[in-house]
Every structure is written in structure tokens, then in C-alpha cells.
Amino acid sequence: MSYIILLLVSFLSCNTVEPTKFSPEALNDTFTTLEGNQVTLKSILKKHKGKTIVIDIWASWCSDCIKGMPKVKALQKDYTDVVYLFFSLDRGEDRWKRGIKKYGVEGEHYYMQDQKKCDFGDFVNISWIPRYMVINKAGEIVVFNVIEADDDKLIKALRN
Questions:
Q1: Three-state secondary structure along 47-101?
Q2: What pLDDT is recorded for position 121?
Q3: Lowest-pLDDT choice from 14-18, 43-47, 90-94, 129-133
Q4: Dihedral sign computed on CA atoms, order 52, 107, 29, 16
Q5: pLDDT of 85 above 70
Q6: Exposure class string for 92-119: b at 16+ Cβ within 10 A, else e
Q7: Which of 89, 129, 137, 157 is the least crowded, having the fewest Cβ atoms under 10 Å away?
Q8: Are strands 83-88 and 53-58 parallel, antiparallel or unpaired?
Q9: Whole-angstrom distance, CA of residue 116 vs CA of residue 67
Q10: Average pLDDT for residues 74-92, to the nearest whole number?
């Protein structure tokens, strides 16, 4: 019996704290801009220092991503002072650019040329898309993993 209790305590005390900062590897990972330039995550975040940022990891082939776009657009309407970054897992830059136009996705767009097989992908451990993250004005990750743009955790972070 004590063995079972020990196992339960060990299991329940596992560290499940979500990170509040990006790893150095993730910060140095590169993304492609709409103009075809390579930029690091660090430079993207630095560009928006002092602002609240929503990162939306998506793809134009993802039906859940497309179904969720009205919620993202509602967020953009309600929280106009927030920066919206869209990181695409599309299978090719042409598909990515067509998807942005087709679905009227407004914000800053970056293509993850290595898709999930990159340092950023490893850090955030993408298991489902869409995937939303929130970075607060102090540059801390305050929402690490939600899959709905109207998630209470995400909304609360944007109100702060």
C-alpha cells in the first residue's frame, strides 16, 4: 500500500510548470517573412518589446484553424492594442501565402520552413493546431498552450 502512495505522490508532484521565457535555442530559430527574409524569433519579439503579443500557430490546411478564425478576428476587434503574430505550418510558402489571402488573416505572418521540426517547435511542443500563446508587456509567456482563441486563460491575459 505504501508503494502505491509513494507512486501517486511522485506522479502528482511532477513538474508541470509551463515556461515563462523562451529557450535560447527557440529565440535563435529562424522564420521566413512574407518578403522571403529570414528573421529570428528574438528579433520578432524585440520589434514588439513592451507590447502584448498573441502568437497563433496555424496552417491553411487545418480545418480547426480555419473554424477558429472568426474567434481570432473577434479578439483582434476587441483587443486592438495587441500584436498578432501568425506562425504557419503550411506545406509550402505558396500555400501559406494563398491561405493568408483566402481566409483574410490580418497580422504579422511568418513561415516555419522546418514546420514542427525546429528549435521553436521543440520548445513549444506543438501537439495540436491552432495553438495560441500570449506574451505580456514584460516579455513573459503568460499563456503557453491553449487551442481556442476564446479560451478564458487567453482572454484574462489580454485584459491584464
A1: HCCCCCEEEEEECCCCHHHHHHHHHHHHHHHHCCCCEEEEEECCCCHHHHHHHHH
A2: 85
A3: 14-18
A4: positive
A5: yes
A6: eeebbbebbeeeebebbbbbbbeeeebb
A7: 137
A8: parallel
A9: 21
A10: 96
Residue with cell 476587434: 77
Local structure of residue 146 (DSSP, 8 states): E
Give the three cell numbers for residue 93. Answer: 510558402
C-alpha cell at 68: 477558429
> Hey, what's the cell of 73?
478576428
Distance separating alpha carbons of residues 58 and 63, to the nearest angstrom: 10
Q: Is the pLDDT of residue 107 over 50?
A: yes
Which residue has cell 495540436? 128
User: What pTM did the predictor assign?
Assistant: 0.87
